[in-house]
Amino acid sequence: MKIKPLAALLLALAAPAAFAAMPPEGWRFDFSAKPAKGHTAVQAGTTYDTARGFGYEPDNNSGNGAAATFFSADVPEGNVAVTVTLGPGTHTIKSEVRRLMLENVTVPAGQSVTRTFVVNTRTPAIAAANGMKAGAVDLKAPRETVQEAWNWDRRLTLEIHGGVDKVEIKPFTGATAVPTIFLLGDSTVSDQPGEPYASWGQMLTRFFKPGVAIANHAQSGETFRDSLARRRIDKIVSQLRPGDVVLLQFGHNDQKQIAAGSGGPFTTYKAELRQHVDMIRAAGGLPVVVSSMERRRFDAEGKPYATLADYAMAARQSAEELRVPYIDLNAASRVLYAALGVEGSKPAFATKDGQIDNTHHSNYGAYLLAKAVAAGIRVAKLPVAAQLVDGFAFDPARPDPFEKFAVPASPRYTNERPLGDEANR
User: What residues form DSSP beta bridges with 107?
Assistant: First the structure.
């Protein structure tokens, strides 16, 4: 992946003419030897550059045994509809930093299918809108400016497993706009840049139809306080439209404030949560409180026990006091871990160098928790629940078996553990 330090990102924002503009009607790419009329041909050696505005990213296969190609195209900030035409074979597509869009779509020999999904892209710039002052998100370097730079640049990047025949990218305009589900939280929510780590925020995209977008603004190691200081909530508020939803899940890193004597679940945590709710409401969005999932901890009898009970209680109290929807992911995670058991829960958590990380999840664990969040959206009767994929159902007491989980791993691998929560591995 190309290194894009913060200074380069901000310079690019100040000089948008350096980037090729997406045509008003959108992009239409054809990857075949005989491109269809009205499509732009993409040859195997077409490397991305800013003047062209599209092309393949440099090889990102890092030796972990996985393989994929990465294709990028310049797009305006916001939501775009992506329609792919897939030929024979099995296809999985992720977007930006490993957000799962299509999972193992199988196409029989001699046939082709089309699938559409919605991708949200963004830059660090904050527009003067919805009461926000213009400025920029305070990105963490080098994490967000290098490893996660694809989340902040002026282009859409697709991670393609199995190949594509055609890709069409169309902007939403006016009445065609779809609601957005914004995510704000810590490392268990944020787009993790490489294997073996993953989050439910990266998997949630899989369970929604193209009638809704998901914008993941969560970041590793952070709290409600960090969201305010780094202007992450400001960025979200500046983009809110009526009908948009903001899921708020913090708690893991907030515990460090207790040790530092600078906060607690029933004082600063609740006050900072209220600030977020008030800001979202003032801009016409719908705030939703999500309690943090538990860590992997079992007692002598093999039953999960609580390490975040106070923060889960504070989250519930806040939702009741502020009269906002509540998703009890903490309770759902304990039911899930109990169903998996001491040994069965191990594959749900990231393992690196033989050591299980009992806080951060694997692709499998993140997938299950995303299902739990999606189920919570339905239970809370949020309007966006109408956009859940057909046939969606999830019972944390009866999780999908690990043996049947087949989402391909990404080629990008990291030796760096997600930030935060160092005392609770």
Answer: 89
Complete DSSP assignment for 52-116: T-EEEPPP---SSS---EEEEEE--SEEEEEEEEE-SEEEEEEETTTEEEEEEEEE-TT--EEEE
Instruction: For 332-346, write each residue's pLDDT tens digit.
Output: 999 999 999 999 999
Check which CATH number belongs to the domain holding 386 and give it. Answer: 3.40.50.1110
The residue among 396, 369, 374, 371 whose CA lies nearest residue 384 is 374
Q: Say if pTM beats, i.e. exceeds, 0.70.
A: yes
Q: Does residue 142 fall inside a structural domain? A: yes
Q: Which domain holds residue 72?
A: 6-414
Q: Quick check: is 420 in a domain?
A: no
Q: Is residue 195 part of a domain?
A: yes
Tell me: cis bond preceding 23? Omega within 30 of 0 counts. no
**Interval 368-389: pLDDT, tens:** 999 999 999 999 999 999 999 9
Number of independent structural domains in the chain: 1
- Start-to-end Cα distance in the chain: 29
Q: What is the pLDDT of residue 62?
A: 60
How, if at all, do strands 69-74 and 286-290 pair? unpaired
Check if the beta carbon of residue 192 is closer than 8 Å to that of residue 99.
no
Task: Report yes or no on 208 lying in a domain.
Answer: yes
